Write the structure tokens for this entry.
Amino acid sequence: MEAVIPVPPSPAIPVHGTAALFPVRRIYCIGRNYADHAREMGSDPTRETPFFFGKPQDAVVPGGGAVAYPPATANLHHEVELVVALAQGGRDIPAAEAERCVFGYAVGIDLTRRDLQAKAKDKGQPWDTAKGFDQSAPISPITPATTSGHPSAGAIWLSVNGTERQRGNLDQLIWSVPEVIAHISRFVALAPGDLIYTGTPAGVGPLVPGDRIRCGIDGLGELEVVIV
Ligand code: MN
């Protein structure tokens, strides 16, 4: 059937070491999943029930590169995160079976308008403008789990203009990848093409136009972004 408007493009992420693409369906993000970052944001890093929020499918910036400093903020922050790419989904997925749903893993940045997020927190308003803006989800090529395995430890780091800002280890995740998948699937049906940003370690901070960001995770490669 003919579409009445141009059909919107379907975002897709390169798969490391191949010419294949991973098409994106939805983007979920977990908040406060490293104790030291929860503390720096003024929260108590207990194992309180994880919470999640979304970004639009087309917020991805596959392979990084130039990202425009977004309007309506004076405090754009970087959050380097392990991203999980799902090959299978379902509802009420038990944590013990969740790794079977994973296609692979990537390095991502959950770009955040920290000033708008603070205002939203104060007023009990949603985080959409703080988290779900254009180009707010840079992501590296995806490494298939058949290559990387399912990493539960390894360095995760981010530098700006050559100065390290964030460094953590995947073994510091409060909620593991299988637990995160199990949790989200209790609220929505997960499906092939879903991406999950799993939270950031401490050291988040502001970006300005001209900043050159490099970040990486052991075994999963690196991602570079320039704020323009
Ligand atoms: Mn985040």
